[in-house]
## 1
Amino acid sequence: MFTVWGSKQHFCDGMTRRNFLQIGAFGAGLTLADMLRLRASAAARGETTRTKSAIMIYLPGGPSHMDMYDLKPNAPAEFRGEFRPINTNVTGVQICEHFPLQARMWDKFACVRSIVSVDEHSDSLVMTGYSQRANMTANHPSFGSVVSRMRGANSDVPSFVSLRGLSRGTEPGFLGISHRPFSPSGPGLQNLRPLSMVDAGRQHQRRQMMGAFDGIRRELDTNGSIGGLDSFTTRAFDMIASGGVRHALDNGREPNTIRERYRGVEQFLTALRLVEAGVGCVTLSIGGWDTHGQNFQTLRRQLPQVDKGVSNLVADLHARGLANDVAVVMWGEFGRTPRVNNNAGRDHWAPVMSAMVAGGGMRMGQAIGASTARGERPHDRRYTASQLLSTLYRSIDIDPSQTVLDSTGRPRHLLEDREVVRELL
Amino acid sequence: MTTSIRWLIVLVLLAGARDLAAADEPTRTPKGEIALPAPAEVQSLDVQPKTIDLIGADDSRQVVLTGVLSAGKLQDLTGHVQYKIADSTIAKITNSGRVIPLANGATTITAGYGDNRVTIPVKVEKFDVSLPINFANHIVPIFTKLGCNSGGCHGKSGGQNGFALSLLGFVPELDYQSLVHESRGRRLLPSSPDHSLLLLKASGGMAHAGGKRMEAGSDEYKLIRRWIAAGLPVGESDDPNISKISIFPEHRIISRKNRQQFAVYAHYSDGSVVDVTQRAQYESNDPDVAIVDGSGLVRTLDMSGEAAIMARYQGQVTVFRATVPLGVKIPEYQFTERNFVDKHTHAHWKQLGIVPSDLASDELFIRRVSVDITGTLPSPARVKAFLADTDPQKRDKLIDALLETPEYSYYFANRWADVLRVKRGNQQGRAFGTFAFHSWIREAIAQDRPYDEFARDILAALGDETKNPATVWYKDLRDPQQFVDDTAQLFLGVRMACAQCHHHPYEKWSQDDYWGLAAFFGRVGRKNIPVPGVQNNQQNQRVVIFAKPNGTVQNKRTNKAAIMRPLDGDEVKVDPGDDPRHRLVDWMVDAKNPFFARAVVNRYWAHFMSRGIVDPPDDMRATNPPSNPALLDALAADLIKNKFSLKETIRSICRSRTYQLSSMPNEFNKQDKRSFARYYPRRMAAEVLFDAVSQVTDSPATFPGLPRDRHAPNRAIMLPDESFQSYFLDVFGRPQRISACECERVSEANLAQALHLLNSDEIQNKLSRAGGRAEKLAKDPRPDAQKVEELFLWSFARQPTAEQMTLALRNIEHHAKNKRLAYENIIWALINTKEFIMVQ
């Protein structure tokens, strides 16, 4: 099905993994049932509180835990690497010297340093809670697809947006293709803007004739499914006219001062605008972490970019009053070998990795868990990727123990392994 | 026509009564109460069981008392009479008809309604004897009934808060282990049973996250208490096993807002039968029609229809079926039965007391049948010719003609390719195989290859894709488990996947049944043979499927070689060197096989009627019964009689008046959703809609990766596999072919579809294409009215109304200088109507 390929990502095994540019259609997840619910809740509007959302930042390739959030200055030189830790504004927590912006505001961040992973170049584990291998048959849904399923579309914006195309980790699995993320490219995006070839006058004539030509009898509609089509039509026209999603995707609507802060990491600003507009889950990525060689050289270039992106994002979430409503997580598929190899690189290391979290009403200003002295495996507070996802679900008010039916009709918990990272809640 | 006139009369007579149902209800009955027959209407009473022998203090019996009315009508009276017991020291009977022992001895129970009386002899034995308890037979079912071992609680893998039970009690040995031996034995205290953690938590005496599940002192409590006090017996090795459960009655016609008590019996291997009405679990498949409580009392509600109440006990299942007629006076109507299909649907409607819709008009019929058989809109010329034809056989002739078109074979090949997983999955190297398999399927359909042979060719395929394209099925499926899941769902209409790891929760299928099927695939061999001259790259290797002389599949439960056994069948022995798959197919295609023919006719029925007789169509099980069993049987028998010709099945369905009914409901069938008393409208499938848009706009599609010559497929229904990118097809729910499930195809409407049809470049480009329909019509010298008419015939297979014509002509006039714009507008308006995207 996927004949068009997205941006390339080169990994160590010589295989090129490209993001599938599949269909990420906005509105594909808005079913008739949602539509009816929306109508019902429209009456009660005003009382509803803001629904919570999540931003999932994925660092493909496997970022080096020992050079970011889990430095080991006392380890032998061949382990500790070239970077030094710096103090943060939270006593006792140190992070990498190339993360100065986060260090200054660590009271708004937390990290977990004791997560075990699997050795797979895939976003499957950190986005679905299950490894790619398990998902080859089990087809567990992505975090964002679950949000889409649980929330439906709550306004004129999609509930799940992927700013990084589509991959295994953004797939809806057994929830079905209507819960794929909206990928703002191709027809899915273009269909949201008014057609240039058809002016308002013609559009009006068209709609008038459409209503008059339709010979389907109202009486056929014994279960509301035919009338539902009309609601979609009305809604589609409204959306094209109002431009809600297009506007959210348009960073140009932000003041210059703000855009300047995000120069080079614009997708963080887009993510911010999307959650502000009511998107339930946004995922984005920054590539290039498979540092088998020249690890430090690469990271000197990349870490400041990441630092700029997440610190601005989190600062603006606070500034806009969204810090308790939006959970942020940043991680990759695994950690990297504690011992630096002969090419000044680090190789795959699944026994332990780190994750950064922020917002979502979680407890910030801490570093949770620890790896062993040389950063080789969890020393205490061993957690799994699934458990951190479980924590994130809870932080946005989704109960990970609830069940949904898979394609064989079997009830499945959102996550089987769903103990939470207690320090965060 | 006569029918509708008669309705009109009735409607006029009943004018003012908004709800016919309410109008017909006897006025003497206050709202909410059951309309019981007058005593004089009851001709006799029937009671089940006729005699009651209670053994031990834990035994009980559910009485089912039925009043026999005139014309064989039956009314449940179980909870509506006063029972009298001659000796109230021997036994007691509750108002709901449950007989409970009190002491050894004999007595009688009498019940009366009007002048009718029945007497039931009751005998109680061994009341004072503490009968031996078998853990699996007596204790485990309590956990199931109370929900302790459900998948959301202690039954999930790993258990709940450290206490794990087997899912729904399918592995009693494990349950015994965790209750008696785990957690240092503190869950049970034989020395002081009431202080056992199990009883304290379940009865609310101690904090329990699952809440209070039973009352201290209830029957369940007492039985568990007695088991603990008796020293936690497992039971004897020669204690009987359950062999089946039965239900009384199995089927009843019940009026709306009525009640029916049933009784459930467990049959054991030693021939004993135990009343388990209080211990089994119940679930209704249609809670709008009927609901059930934990003691087997069914309540029908305001809706008419059919409901199946599943009863489940210790891995055995059975069903009580309730037919709930509308129960209002219906007008006389005409329904000419055209074939056996009509005979069975008509009988069903009579039972339900509903009136079928009228015959669909010729306009609706030609559009419906063309889309359903060929996935293609009829051309205006064809529509006109059909409407003008006065031959009374013209509908049959049209069906026959459509079945001989290439579009028929393409369309059905497309549907079969979905469930046969004809997919490339991003591997270009697989295109040879998928193209070959698709064209093999299409030829089989065009030639009407007998379905039994079609299935055998796939299931027992040998060779490689260049010689035998059916082996491509084995490219996507690799493990015996996948063969079982797909074979069962696709060819037998049974979903077995649950039984791979545990007993099927809603069915009788056990893991041994599952692995019994898997064993037939134990000798499938596969070998990759490099293609000469091509680099040794996996994608270009050729997979050869061969039969190994020996080979087994390991049964996951026993960890031993699984015994070959078809569903509900006996063990099959296959000589070394033979291919067991042929033995499996032999069993499948046998005329007596209860699954194979039914599964495919039901699949085809669902294709044409929007819904299966069993629905979902590939989920046939005792607890999901057919809405019309006689119809399903008759269709299956018809297929077998016609030597598995699927074209004949299509003829039988499409020629029936049932298929040809209008989708316009009447007062009497508007709530009908599964008896086919009208045609249920549905949205066109993704590929069909895509092609329809291309047809009406006269903008044939091109697909990437295919040659652009005149032989290239320019229709979505012609695409051989899933790899042709199309936003349109994906948004409208084209399946990715990742499973054998029909459910992968999404037919639900959504906002993205509306956005695409209303406002996409793709559609606008089709409308304004140079040489497309709008431009051609703009240049066409014929009068505009004639051209507008042609567009309506294309889109709806009907003429425009006068108003619609006026509106269209006005738009053409408005754009008189550039008529192409007007024609684009008109076509846009037509394809965005509900009438266009729906088949009705």
## 2
Amino acid sequence: MGYAIGVDVGGTFTDVVLRHPSGAVTVAKCLSTHDDPIAGIVAGVTRVLGGLDPALVTRVVHATTLATNAVLERRGVRVAFVTTRGFRSIVPLGRHARVEEERYDLRFTPPPPPVDPADCFEVVERVSARGEVLTPLDLPSVRRAAREIARRGITSAAVCLLHSYANPAHERRVAAVLRASVPDVVVSSEVWPEIREYERATTTIMSAYVGPLMAAYLSRLRDRLAELGVRAPVHVMESGGGVVSAELAARRAVATIESGPAAGVLAAAGIGLPDVISFDMGGTTAKACVVRGGRPEITHEFHVGGKGSFGGRRAGTGVPIRTPAIDLAEVGAGGGSIAWLDAAGTLRVGPRSAGSSPGPACYGLGGAEPTVTDANLVLGYLGSASLPLSPPLAEKALDRLAGPLGVPRAEAALAVHTIVSAAMASAVHVVTVQRGIDPRGFALVAFGGAGPMHAARVAGRFGIGRVVVPAYCGVASAAGLLTGALSADRVLSRLGAADPAGLLDALAREAAGDLGVSPDDTGVRVERSVDVRFRGQAHELTVPWSASPDVLRGRFFARYAQVYGIEQRGEVELVGYRVRVTLPPPASPPEPPAARQPGTAGPDPRAADPRAAGTRADPRTDTRTGTRADTRTGTRTGTRTGTRAAYFPELGGYTDVPLHTRATLAALPGVLPGPAVVEDPESTIVVPPGWTAAPGPAGAVHLLREEAAGA
Amino acid sequence: MRDPLTAEVLRNALLVAAEEAGIVVVRSAYSTFIVEGSDASAAILDARGRLVAQSVATTLMNSMALRAALPELLADVPPGTMRPGEVYVLNDAYRGGVHTNDLLVYRPVFVGGAPAYFTATMIHVSDLGGLSAGGMAPLATDVFLEGLQLPPVRLATAAGLEPAVEAILRANSRTPDKVMGDVRALVAGTAVAAARLGALLGEYGEAGLAAGIEDYLDHTEAMTRAALAELPRGRFEAAYPIDDDGITPGVAHHVRVAVTVGDGGVVVDFAGTGPQVPAAINASASQSLAAAVFAVRCFLDPALPMNDGCLRALDVRLPEGSLLDARSPHPCGGRYVPIYAAMEAVFQALSDAVPERAIAASGILQPFSIAAVGAPYWIHLAYDFGGVGARRGLDGPDATGVHFGVGRNSVPQAEPVESRCPLVVESVGTIPDSGGPGRWRGGLGSRTVYRFLADCHVTTRGDRLRLAPPGRDGGLPGRVGGFLRRDRDGRLERLASKVNNVRFAAGEGFVVETTGGGGIGPPGERDLGAVAADLAAGRVTRRGAEEDYGVRVAEDGSLSRDG
């Protein structure tokens, strides 16, 4: 088994993880290079390799935001949309749902469609809902469209004909004609053959829109890695947590849109506990996901660029994309979120964020507005970060709230901290309580730069008694990439299929074909599931397939009761078929850092610190390290590194609390009672009163609520 | 410190509780409207009948109904007699309800042995009788033709649905199984929200939750009053017509309003509005209140919360026995017709007050149903939107209406409808040149063409199909739409705007055209680049560009204008 590299490109940082054959891990965190993400990747890969022979790397797994950014920033290629006669307006008209403030906004204008209305073409044909041909395909109408698309110099086309999920013959013939003059043609019945023309069309259009970019990007990435001597195959994580070859990722670019968040959830799923809630809080957003029995929940539709109470997943906002995605709830609040007072004088946090420029006030990069990070610094929770921090600037920023509110600065900071914890909690809420899942039996796995500071407070709201902060929690997504197995998905909408089992077998053969295997090969796992609904309803639930109708109905009824709280019985129908084929996992999960051998790369947690890894994350010098009231008395070999005044309302205000690192925590004879602070190179763990901290397996830190400790 | 913090945290928690209830109803209901894309409504109220929070998808029409009907429920069923686990239902339009098919469902949440809060859900259910399947009775002359009326009754106990009520509902529905599926969904929604409210009570305590809610309402009132104070002082009047009542063609009815902005607040007085009529163009008071509040809010900060605090800041006056506050037995099933006129009148009055935020009149939404001529019933109940009027500085959006902020996501798609009903959707598109010409153009209306594969009944409830939505400041009206029959030879015949169970034969076509929005400013002042973009996108034809905008289109496609 060789070396494997995980690369996660995020909005602020590019994280690279190198896993050694021994299981040891080396990490690097570099600032992302937005204009050319490959530059940041090359820097990170170079750093983790150190003196290692690049030829020893056998696998590179990549999570990329290329597709997301291309959609959000509308930087994809020009696309021609080809559809059935009578329907060229369906995409321009759109299906936008007005939510929140848009409801009362007379000056609201729907977002521009994902394709220029003038670039929408019609062909003469019609198929019925049952797949019968009502109007034969008129080839001259296809040739006319093809000629005009070529004449306009459009090189990418998306074809979505009505009911093509039921009968794809017309779509295939249209594609064949177009391909003679249009280089990239994407067909809806190949991308995602499901009923509902609008979502199928937008999924197809988005595929055509980002596919050529993705192909070019991945090809360049492979070239640049090859220049470094890394000639291993490049794999890409899909939104559903599967991993596909670069070739497949280019063909199905829309399937990679939630690539990075999916990797983080896989990291949480790999923590060793079966039932966890993954909680990832970064600078601008926080994401939560439920993992049960070691498996994350999967959804089949999400909305790029969407909005709404639940962080962008409200149907009808943004561009709907029908592909499997790990079912995250996302809220637009993070460390960079700005706190402000509304017209009535009430404290609000977000949705505006200071981002990385100017950043929180305490970064000293010119930001003056108070952010969550500033509040956490004032409260004594945050110690260091990848950037030097300025307590006086944070204090000044918080005073902009404290003055008008008429409260001491620390109380204003605590209010900001509490409000944002509540926003974080709403993400957890969506994926648990709202889906009929009692969160109390779960552990909260916290990562991302800001996650471990808020995790215990969020957990407390739900009666969750255990918080796990994994090793390398600041680069958890990159580490998660290495746990993903190669997989391929297939789906088909079909009402009243005569032979469901045969249909699933055919899908399994196609999916296995993507991976170059057969469903029957040793170690190949085939998961079959079906979309079931009560006859007469519009919403389906996906349940694992069973050839026994009674078993299948039982599974559906149970799931229905779980989701809706209704013990409904009645006639059911199958409307969709899903298959995932997975190859055996490539290797064992990363060895815990606690067990690593001295001398291998990465034993020192400071290896994860960009300043320690030889390349500065930021060119500015560290002239302002440390925070107010820090008294660093110990050394890394001592029982603690010092104390710091931190604010806990339960204790009536600022209290000197012990300051630890993971190493000093591990050296303690017993557990560490809160209040306390454990500092990592990339994040800070806050242990509130009533909680204890202790080292856990695999280098993690476990926080336990005291009344839950014995349970 | 506790107050702003509690307000913010609780606000989120209450909204989430309502949101969860709505999601459960939407995903488990059978109603055609819901199945094809519409949202459910869900709200939290207190025992004093105050609206505390509503889900994002809840229209003001529905939250105002839920608020108005709760005191009526409490009048018939004293709170002291209610027991945990019980659920109540009503639809009486004269006691806060909307119309027959909209069921209002309430569940008390107990504090110290007495109901302190109510969780409520509401959808347009599958069918509860009346003149046509699915719930539209555009030609009803009294409420008894509109279907089953339910006073406040107990729908369920902790043991489950009341068998007698279930029997009554089933007996009065063309689709008994679906209606009961809808009812179970509504009940489940209230249970979800009640459980969340129970958790909040545990977290904050009785007094803490009550204080937090007071804070939230007070805060909303303060924000609303602050926003209202920014409107210019004065009295602004407007009127808006209704095409006809469906019984007597060609005779218009009018809604009149005077919006008075004073130092003490804003009064919206509909004195002078036409009297109630024995036809389905009346509204119950809750619906008219919703229209007035919605229209005023459209001129305030759009981010204001929606609860009783907002309502306290507004004084809406509805003349008793008028089109906007009808009494039994005047039918209220077509309430959207008068309340859209009320909304438009307020828009025009406030456009005079705040010209920089002016909006021209819009095309209205056009509901219709297509149903089997007999059992077993299939029903396609849907609507499409007219074009939005131009806004000063902005064209109007196409076919999205101003439907209490509902968007096109509620318009059905062709594939699911065709998989459910014996018809083919031939085309869906916008109508070129239908947006009212102006310096800022009105939004376009839409055209949808159906071809039937079986005999069926068509029912329509249209308005603004005779009297076009006018433009402002020299802008022209939008083009009126209509409902049309296409016979097997392709000949088109215009139907009246409000028809009931018109029989169509298999092979015939049905065309739904919605009305475009009015324009603002003289069309001759429209930027040539904007005309060129409209030409390229097909929103304006070459003839439209020449005749409506006075431009010349040269052979090379370039545009010019005299003078």
